[in-house]
Structure of RING-type E3 ubiquitin transferase:
Amino acid sequence: MAQPASASAAPAWRQFPFFDVVPVKDIHDLASPPEVFQKTPEISTITPSSAGLIVADIHGSVYLINRDFEIAKSWVAHTGGRVTHMAERKGILVTLGEEDTARHPFLKVWDLQVFDKKTGAPLLLRSAKVQSGNRPHPVSVMALSASLSYLAIGLGDGTVILYRHLDQSIYSTSGSLNTLPKPRIIHESPTEPITGLGFREPTEDSPNVYLFIVTTNRVLCYQASGKGSGGTPTVVDEIGAGLGCATMDWKAREVVVARDEALYLCGTDSRGSCYAYEGPKSSIYTHRNYIVIVSPPFTPSASAASATVRNFVAKNNAPTGSDITKLTVFDPENQYVAHSGTFTEGVREVFSAWGKLYVLSNDGKVGPFLLCLEEKPTSAKLEMLYRKGLYTLALNIAETQKLDESHIADIHKQYGDQLYAKGDYDNAMQQYIQTIRHVQPSYVIRKVFLDAQRIHNLVTYLQELHSLGLANADHTTLLLNTYTKLKDVGRLDSFIKRESLRTSADGDKDELPFDLDTAIRVCRQAGYFEHASYLAKKYERHEDYLRIQIEDAGNYKDALKYLRRLGAEAAESNLARYGRAMLENLPEETTDLLIDICTSLAPLSVDADESDSAAPVKQPSGGPSYLSYLALNRASVASAPSASESTPPSGTQANGSKAPDTPSRQHSIHDTTPPPSTPTTAHPSKARLASVKRPSPRLYFAHFVDHPHHFVRFLESVARKRWGQTLENASEPQPVEADPNADEQAERRDQAAVWNTLFELYLSQPQGTDSGADSNSKALAVLQNTRLPYDPTHALILCSTRGFTPGLVLLWERMGMQEDVVRFFMDRHQDGDTDASAEVVRRLDQYGPARPQLYPLVLRFLTSTPALLTKHREDVRRVLGVIDEQKIMPPVSVVQLLSRNSVASVGLVKEWLMARIKSAREEVETDQKLISSYRADTEAKLQQVQELSDPDRPRVFHVTQCSACQGGLDLPAVHFMCLPQNETECPNCAREHGIIREIRRNNERLADQHDLFLSEVREGPNKLAFDSHLKTLNSSNAFEMLFARGDENPFMEYARDSEGNRIWAPGSVIFCDLPMLTDRAISLRKEAIRTFNARYPPRTDLDSLPPELRMPDIDKDVGRESKDGYYLIYGFLLTMEQLHSCVEGLGRKIHEHDIDNYYEIRRYLQERYNFDGLKVLCDTPAQLDSFVFTLWTNGKPGRHANGHLYDQEEERRAIQLLADTFSPYSGQTQPMWYWGREHFPSFCTHPTDRERWKLLTSLVDPNVLRASSTASMVTVASRSACHRTLVPLMAHLMQTQNYQ
């Protein structure tokens, strides 16, 4: 069949061999096509499905084909007829066919998921006739929606039948086999047969279902669901298509209509895209994103416009007049032909299955029946396009094929490389920008755009990097350097003022699109100080802002205001760095700021009249600024470099101002947008509510090295405002606001440092001027004010170094060093000061009454030279008189002192010597008389003793009158040998004897309180005498005798050195030359004590006492307070801490010694309750650091002062009284029986008394201690542990040696 020449013109689209033609063979016979296709003319229709390929023939049979093109299932769908149309969705197959038994077509619905095991046919769900009117009409097309809800059937007479809710009908079990929804005729056009149907599936934008209806002349759209459905179909386009030339696109969104001149895409409202592709078309199909076009048979010609046809003619010697069919695979989105082929006998069917395109040919002689068009891999297709330089088409194909971003970026990279090689740099950069996130920026920057001529392209790329938030510090540096090199101030302003583009993890846009540190650094290096300060100020980089203002711009006033607004905490650290530079340029203002920081508890205030436009110091040159940033001249940052010290950069005049012909860059920011306000603290509201922590003023002392006057003002202001301390206020400090967060120890150290430094500054002022005299008076006022917390030793050193005599004398007097004052003026006299001797005499008169030892010193001084003696002769006589009156020196010493040289004559002391000799004679006579008197008394007493002790010499009493009451004596009467008489006891001796008995009782009670004994020894007035006695005992080896057999005692392990010798306690006055115990011995004893208290807890009664604790000798040691070898205490127990708390809680004074605290409680009970006859005793239990307040023991019941026992009521009252007093501190509400200290585990027992060790051995194994002593060196115990062991021995020794 011939075709017009115009119709055979080849399309103008690019053609590519993107498909490979592969014949499909039978799996069992590779020389033949699949069995089902060997009878090609008998196949009526083919449709792909989810279950496989479905093939129907003209005999009414249906075949289900698998991937190997084998028949998996087959059945007869329409008996005696043929299958004309098929459609499958979700495993449901709908067939339309003709049967001999009916005039009208049959519609059958099959379930491909359920097959009959006997017949092999799927389950038939529905079967019904398709009837429209009385006359039958053939079915031209059929369409089934994806959800099975709608089925549309087009008839040859122009009628369209629509079945609604088909899915509900076929899945319903209540209906019969021929029950289907009632069909509805939605379109009729008798003159326009229906050539195409297709459903537009719902989407998010359009949730309704639409049906496209294609006739030979028109394209219509019918709304099948949703609001407004059921109306008349609307005409979309006035151009129709032939049968088979209309199909839905691969997205099921639009219908594709093929005409001879073009391909049209029609939507629900109007016609859409149009692709010009001339030539006749017999049918079209869709395969993925492709449209497959099949032309009707035509006669090939060597002059045809299509290259495919020309190639066919050239390669085949077909007979003249034979027709061929052309198949074209067209990509409408990218507008190219992916495959073009010819078939000599036409094309029977084209279908898409398993991701491949299959073509069924009618050719049964030359070639195979079934061909598979396999699409080449995307990489292979892209390589073809790369070789041809079609990168744009490659990008389009990559997007169509849904390649990932990395592959697409690689295409952009290669495209950019090609454009760069051609010199198209701008377009190349646009391609490189598309590679961001996938290609390293260094590839683009280093390889391509480091040429200065293409710096604009580099700026474009770097800006895009920053806008996407992918730039690092190096990129920011490079971009800012390009701005500065181009002098593009506008772009620089726009860049640094960009708001945040990156989003943080919490969803807030708080990340900058560039590296802030890098931006500030580069702007500083380039001399754009305003830009750098803008960034630092806006983003609260306080240190950077101050570094720029002070080191670079020299704008000290603005830096000072910024510091004040920052607040105390932020200003503290920055002033520690820049305080010296600020003081160098703004001394007064900086001093005020430092004072406010160190004294104010509220946030720092800013003066309202401060001008924000303070004229800054002109910017220095770029060179020094860069060096300053690199910390090369950080040591000289105290002062800003002047213009003469550096070379100005290009465009900058020598005086630091900008040249007229250079565009302004420093003020570009402030000309367009005002700078951001100075940041305060992160939470200003909270900062004002809470007090500000004041820093130590010592942090800023070093800054005032070259500013002594401002330093003085700073220290005086801090002392006055922070602590209320001034020179004038000597009584009470001025009231100041208290700091709740202040550390008292740190505050005291700061006060001492301030006043020490201030005193030194007063003394360092130059002398001979008014300011120097005023400073000396202030220094003396510091020393005279006793409330100022300066360090006297430090002040003494300063006064001595500076030669400040008034202060030196005052400090010596304060420290009790009056003798040094006198000697100082003596030395002054030796140095030639004529008035110094008079000052010596005056100081003697002042200090002499309290310090008599000064008189011999001054006497020696006044008689050292004839000149002094002549000048102070009367003073010498007066000194001698005082010495004689107060008996400061014996006469012999005075004579020796005066006779050491020839200055003093005998006439000077003649009268004094005569008086002293006369006085001595009188004393001798008096002593002689006293001696005679004592001898006579002694002889009389001895005679009396002899008479009383002589049994043969009776004593006769003639006294008939009582010596006490002066009444007459009645028999029986008692006569005492001391002569007074009384019925009971000698009234004259009773008081003395009572005192002696009380002393003995107290000694017995305090016998075990060794700590009290030792403290009294150390602090008592006879300490020196005791030390001498102790040394005497040591010299006699008394202690060594006690420890002679200590090595046999397993509980008395001594510390020894590496040679095995005992280590003695050094440096102790009381325990000198005593062997020290090891830590192991001390630990062993503590363990025994803890075990004892755990094994023998306090008791509530005295029944069944443990026999192992019975001590037969305890009755002799303790006396009547013990009973039957036991000693227990009945009362309330308090530890040392509880005792102190009790004394404090009762409002009594806490003493250093615990026995005094006990007496405080005892006096409190007697004063508070006035309990008649109550005696509260304090005893020591067998527990560490504890007391028991008791009324009686098991051997001594409580008694009244008048002698009778407590009755039950009095006992109850006594117990309740103690419980009320001690229970708030000990928690004990009832008294308990506590073991006395006599049962306490003893370690000092002599080794011969093995019975006394039984208890210790039951409490702790001494072999543990003995085993540990095999080492050559043991740890020396602490001195306190040694004391605890030696105290009982010390007490015993003192009693045996009768040292009271």
In short: The mean pLDDT is 75. Residues 109 and 125 are 5 Å apart (CA to CA). The longest helix spans residues 906-949.
